[in-house]
Amino acid sequence: MDTITIKDIARALNLSTSTVSRALRGSYEINPETKRLVMEYAERLNYRPNPIALSLKGSSSRAIGVIVPQIANYYFSQAINGIEAIAYNRGYHVIIFQTHESYEREVANVQQAVARKVDGLLISLSSETSDVSHLKELQQKNLPLVLFDRVSDELDVTQVVADNFGGAFAATEHLLQAGRRRIAHLTIPPWISITQERLAGYRAALEKYGVPFDENLVRYGTFGPDEAGQMVDELMALDPRPDAFFTASDRLALGCLAALRQRKVAIPDEVSLIGFTNLHVADLLSPSLSTVVQPAQEIGQLAAERLIELIERKHRAAPVGTVKVPTELVVRESSRATSVTPVP
């Protein structure tokens, strides 16, 4: 099948090539009905922009850089899928870097992306990143920048995040309503934005139900191997011990589940377990895992859309701000109510 061009679309719809081109770019100059006709026809014929041809028309590289902590993390792989879908449809290449949770590698990745002359950058901060001066330098150079998932309030840029507070509140409230009172929280390093937001949601739910916050029930991970086992041992040695675990990541959820099973702790009869995760096999685990689901692909799509708006400097580009995407609590067997007396 021959490659479809803008000229083919223009001829079929009896429009000028410039009108079709602007409609495909989402220009505010084109009325919504014309945009709809052009987009639907282009999709039906599987039209895709040619990034090389587009880059030859100007100084644009038609490439965006994406920097994530780890591609193997299921959340980030989903987010990248969303980013690539939007970029591909808009005629952009995607260059992916991973920091492996290293601040030094993050700085090096940023430098490499700039050296490759990307038109803009999407980044989720590493767990070691507290100094964002390398990103402030990008702002001073007017390189379009959007942060997603792990963000920083020191940067005046668009940020796309899940509703971490709301998701953590819903998870903790669910456990409280099931009668749990000693809810342990396993989370990641305390300076990361998502850690702070999820901890705040956890604390707010405890406060709503009149349960005192106990720092002894909170454990901060370091992304080390098998650290969930040590956390579980420390927490189960407390008197009284926890009657529920709320974990703040995929890795900690799986690690906690494995550690509790190895120690013959019955779930949910002795303790409930709920994660903050995007695991696609959560319903296949034993027991099936209750989770707060983040819409990772949608977050990736929104982040890419906002970045491309900045790159193309649309007349009506959305102002700088935080885009918060709702989360969803999915209740499964690991947190079902047992003989514990539930909260009224």
TrEMBL record:
MF GO annotations: DNA-binding transcription factor activity; transcription cis-regulatory region binding
Domain of life of the native organism: Bacteria
Entries under Pfam families matching the protein: LacI, Peripla_BP_3
Alphabetized InterPro entries for the sequence: HTH_LacI, LacI/GalR-like_sensor, Lambda_DNA-bd_dom_sf, Peripla_BP_I
Protein name, UniProt field: LacI family transcriptional regulator
Annotated organism of origin: Hymenobacter busanensis
Lineage: Bacteria, Pseudomonadati, Bacteroidota, Cytophagia, Cytophagales
